[in-house]
């Protein structure tokens, strides 16, 4: 484990405005609740991404704790934030915040760039000292108060286009978030505005097909003229002179951090494997109406449809959606005629004409990657599906 702090570069931020408050994110899904007493305990998300450990003696009586995902509002934030309660309750012992980071958090960044941050009631975001465990991929921090918490990136490489055809171009840019002293005198620094670095960037490279030309914090990647099969290219750049050489998680002037961004070549691809048979579908769309999100893919007469009922219209990365009624939040429905050509679905109506009843098979859908617009969506599903064989009732 290593303690992380952020490099404050006064040369970059001299002309930048000071920290400004953000609107708070929108609550998502149903809160996770747990009563924890003086003996201590842990509350966390089912997927293990976010958890809070309350040590023995932190509270003097049984206390209701809750955490709930909220939409991201911080520009260089990564994934959803989490609202922790109770607020305004002092803890006798500091509690521990833990967040497991994944490949989506590292896309365009590096482990040394990841920190935990919280938003106060006035809307300001605070940088906190964070412990980094690269072996288990965990960020940890201690606090004596609750609010909205998230993972953030101090440096980040972003692109205007993730999926590229032949000869397509993508613009890439590296951003940095400065920190400044809290005028109220609190120990945690305030996060400043997101700025585009004008210096400290070098060695733009591409690993895979295509070429990249960089100038400072900006670069342009060009896909090759021929992409025989879908491929992946990784564009990287080096941030120099803003971290310590012996410990890149610390500020300094003689070290470097390497940022890398994934680009998908060969157009959008929808690849689905059913019982060992893989089907490449030629067209895939994601549409949303209210809280209903539909992923559909088609190739000729074969297709697949996955629908979700989600709170506030937001899919949560890493969440599992069990099969069930489509009008219930957190439930999914599956329909497909892949492989067999017959239309199967995860729900059916029984054959009793006097007392028809909807039935649901066992199963669920898990979304493992759900990024920004233009990013790949990845996941898996396993379910018992039913085929309705038409017949005459006599």
Question: Could you explain how this protein is built, in words?
Answer:
This protein is mainly beta. 2% of the residues lie in helices and 50% in strands. The protein has two helices and 34 strands.
Summarize it.
This protein has 394 residues and is mainly β. The chain has two helices and 34 strands.
What is the average per-residue confidence, as pLDDT, rounded to a whole number? 83
Helical run tally? 2
Largest sheet: 11 strands, antiparallel
Please identify the structural class as seen in this structure.
mainly beta
How far from one another are the termini? 71 Å
Instruction: Outline the low-pLDDT stretches.
Output: 1-14
Residue share in helix: under 10%
Based on CA atoms alone, the radius of gyration comes out at 24 Å
Report the portion of residues in β strands: over 45%
Shape summary: flat
How many distinct beta strands?
Answer: 34
Fold topology:
Blueprint: E1 2-4, H1 10-13, E2 32-36, E3 41-44, E4 50-54, E5 63-70, E6 77-85, E7 95-100, H2 103-106, E8 114-119, E9 125-127, E10 130-133, E11 138-143, E12 148-153, E13 155-159, E14 163-164, E15 169-180, E16 189-196, E17 201-207, E18 211-215, E19 218-222, E20 231-240, E21 256-265, E22 270-274, E23 277-281, E24 283-289, E25 292-299, E26 302-309, E27 320-322, E28 331-336, E29 344-345, E30 347-349, E31 358-360, E32 363-370, E33 377-383, E34 386-387
Parallel strand pairs: 14-21
Antiparallel strand pairs: 1-10, 2-5, 3-4, 4-7, 5-6, 6-12, 7-11, 8-9, 8-12, 9-16, 10-11, 13-15, 15-16, 15-19, 17-20, 18-19, 20-21, 22-23, 24-25, 25-26, 26-28, 27-32, 28-29, 29-34, 30-31, 32-33
């Amino acid at each position: 484990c290593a303690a992380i702090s952020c490099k404050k570069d006064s040369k970059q931020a001299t002309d930048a405005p000071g920290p400004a408050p953000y609107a708070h994110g929108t609550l998502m899904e149903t809160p996770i609740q747990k009563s924890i007493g003086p003996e201590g305990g842990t509350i966390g998300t089912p997927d293990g991404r976010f958890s809070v450990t309350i040590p023995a003696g932190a509270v003097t009586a049984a206390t209701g704790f809750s955490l709930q995902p909220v939409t991201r509002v911080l520009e260089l934030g990564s994934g959803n934030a989490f609202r922790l309660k109770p607020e305004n309750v002092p803890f006798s012992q500091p509690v521990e915040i833990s967040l497991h980071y994944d490949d989506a958090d590292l896309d365009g960044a590096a482990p040394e760039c990841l920190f935990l941050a919280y938003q106060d009631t006035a809307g300001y975001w605070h940088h906190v000292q964070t412990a980094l465990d690269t072996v288990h991929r965990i960020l940890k921090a201690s606090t004596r108060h609750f609010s909205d918490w998230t993972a953030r990136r101090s440096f980040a490489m972003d692109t205007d286009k993730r999926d590229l055809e032949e000869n397509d171009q993508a613009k890439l840019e590296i951003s940095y978030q400065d920190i400044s002293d809290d005028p109220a005198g609190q120990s945690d620094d305030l996060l400043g505005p997101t700025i585009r670095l004008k210096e400290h960037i070098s060695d733009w490279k591409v690993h895979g097909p295509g070429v990249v030309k960089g100038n400072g914090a900006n670069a342009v990647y060009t896909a090759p003229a021929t992409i025989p099969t879908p491929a992946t290219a990784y564009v990287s750049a080096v941030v120099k002179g803003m971290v310590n050489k012996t410990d890149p998680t610390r500020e300094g002037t003689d070290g470097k951090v390497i940022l890398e961004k994934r680009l998908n070549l060969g157009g959008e691809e929808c690849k689905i494997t059913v019982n060992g048979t893989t089907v490449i579908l030629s067209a895939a769309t994601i549409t949303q109406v209210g809280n209903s999100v539909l992923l559909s893919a088609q190739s000729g007469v074969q297709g697949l449809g996955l629908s979700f009922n989600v709170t506030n219209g937001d899919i949560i990365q890493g969440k599992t959606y069990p099969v069930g009624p489509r009008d219930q939040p957190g439930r999914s429905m599956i329909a497909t005629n892949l492989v067999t050509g017959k239309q199967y679905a995860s729900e059916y109506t029984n054959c009793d004409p006097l007392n028809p009843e909807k039935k649901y098979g066992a199963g669920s859908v898990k979304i493992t990657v759900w990024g920004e617009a233009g990013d790949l969506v990845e996941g898996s599903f396993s379910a018992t599906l039913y085929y309705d064989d038409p017949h005459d009732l006599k």
